[in-house]
Specification:
This protein is α/β, with parallel strands linked by helices. The chain has 2 domains: 5-130, Enolase-like, domain 1 (2-Layer Sandwich), CATH 3.30.390; 148-438, Alpha-Beta Barrel (TIM Barrel). 38% of the residues lie in helices and 18% in strands. The strands form 5 sheets. An 8-stranded mixed β-barrel has the order 5-6-9-13-14-15-16-17, surrounded by 6 helices. A 3-stranded antiparallel sheet has the order 1-2-3. The protein binds 2-phosphoglycolic acid and zinc ion. 2-phosphoglycolic acid is lined by residues 45-48, 252, 254, 323, 375, 377-378.
């Protein structure tokens, strides 16, 4: 089935922060006269890596400068050049868009324009083949047996750029290592989320649905971190689970956000140098069942990343994840692998802007023994694409926020559909990653 110039259209829609985003729609008729419709949305980050592909915004006053009418218009230009391509020819389509854009970081057409088309094409191809999306993506990825449900890293306490509570670490997550399957992971995660909600007396929620505790004004940065982690452990135990054994903890520090002039600021008065920061993590790991640290160091602090990686990888089995560090970019990731930075990669399709490049990063990770964590953004939509991507590539881990707010829950519900409905229908036995990705 070939694309036509009229097949691809784009529209401005809204994300979970009420900000404009791009939706691309593909409408085609196959040889049998069957109508195929596929929509795809793009998400948007708040704590972005400096080397991410460019998200094109209109600027000016309307929508606080965040309108995407230029990106929407650019999809019309893309639609013209993609006419005649076969909808299943994902790599050629993505390459054609990269060439048409012609810049290093997709700044002419916008990564939001390009990615929305890239994802809509994949969904249209799956519709055309009448298979679930994960099944089609597995074909693209050359995974014959896409039956691994990822371990969720559920973000239950929000700080950093996602909340306004003086907690510098952006995300405190629970890792459902002890569940028997995804269904049980959801039971455990939602129970702890509910218990935590009762234990935190004064709180709103942050951008990813996790609680945003209000701390005593006198609490310093270090105390805010300790109190939050203690709250998490308490909520795990009050829910009758064993902290560490059944449910572990993961951090996303998003450290570039509190790094200035070579120092990490835990609050306005307290700062640590690189070595001090690594030592601080060592302390946290001693006190709490932390098994994964994402963006523990700032993206420009290579010596810090080396120290963090060398300090924790290996015998201690701590997962060190690069997000802003690698920005899902094959070239940047390659350099990181060569320098021995981190032992896991966070994968966000909109950091790079095409599905094919995203799949390439996942392949590279697997080839070099890096763990893969598929991730949402803080500004999300109702599109559950990443759930399918995670299963299709045997990624093993998913980060999609708290089990609250529908833009997060839609992904969790999609995994439940895959585990309970789609895999059994394909006569594949679902397998849950659990503790598998962690050498603990
Ligand atoms: P972002 O946060 O989407 O705001 O970048 C998510 C993350 O840092 O993992
Ligand atoms: Zn991150």
């Amino acid at each position: 089935m070939r694309l036509t110039p009229e097949a691809i259209t784009a529209y401005q829609r809204f994300d979970s922060r009420g900000r404009p985003t791009v939706m691309t729609r593909i409408e085609l008729t196959d040889n049998n006269g069957r109508r195929i419709t596929a929509n795809a949305f793009v998400p948007s980050g708040a704590s972005k890596g400096s080397r991410e592909a460019l998200e094109l915004r209109d600027g000016g006053r309307t929508y606080h400068g965040l309108g995407v009418s230029k990106a929407v218009k650019n999809v019309s230009e893309i639609a013209q050049v993609l006419a005649g391509f076969t909808v299943t020819d994902q790599e050629a389509i993505d390459q054609r868009m990269i060439d048409l854009d012609g810049t290093e970081n997709k700044s002419r057409l916008g990564a939001n324009a390009i990615l929305s088309v890239s994802l809509a094409v994949a969904r249209a191809a799956a519709e055309y083949q009448q298979v679930p999306l994960f099944n089609y993506l597995a074909e693209l990825y050359h995974e014959p047996n896409p039956n691994l449900l990822p371990t969720p890293l559920m973000n239950l306490i929000n700080g950093g750029a996602h909340a306004d509570n003086g907690l510098v670490l952006q995300e405190l997550m629970i890792v459902l290592v002890g569940a028997a399957n995804f269904t049980e992971a959801m039971k455990m995660g939602t129970e702890v989320y509910g218990t935590l909600g009762k234990a935190i007396k004064a709180s709103g929620v942050g951008d990813e649905g996790g609680y945003s505790p209000i701390f005593q004004p006198s609490a310093n940065g270090r105390e805010r971190i300790y109190n939050s982690l203690a709250l998490l452990v308490k909520a795990i135990e009050l829910s009758d689970y064993k902290a560490g054994k059944d449910i572990a903890i993961a951090l996303d520090s998003a450290a570039s956000e509190f790094y200035q002039d070579g120092r990490y600021y835990l609050d306005s008065k307290t700062s640590l140098d690189s070595a001090g920061m690594v030592e601080f993590y060592r302390e946290l790991i001693r006190e709490f069942p932390v098994i994964s640290i994402e963006d523990g160091m700032a993206e420009g602090d290579e010596a810090g990343w080396k120290a963090l990686t060398n300090g924790f990888v290996g015998g201690r089995g701590i997962q060190i994840v690069g997000d802003d560090l690698f920005v899902t970019n094959p070239l940047i990731f390659q350099r990181g692998i060569e320098r021995g930075l981190a032992n896991a990669v966070l994968v966000k399709p909109n950091q790079i802007g095409t599905l094919s490049e995203t799949l390439k990063v996942i392949r590279m990770a697997k080839a070099h023994g890096y763990n893969v964590v598929i991730s949402h953004r803080s500004g999300e939509t109702e599109d559950p694409f990443i759930a399918h991507l995670a299963v299709a590539t045997d990624a093993g881990q998913i980060k999609t926020g708290a089990p609250a707010r529908s833009e997060r829950v839609v992904k969790y519900n999609e995994f439940l559909d895959i585990e309970q409905i789609h895999l059994p229908r394909l006569e594949l036995t679902p397998y849950y990653a659990g503790r598998l990705p962690f050498k603990v």
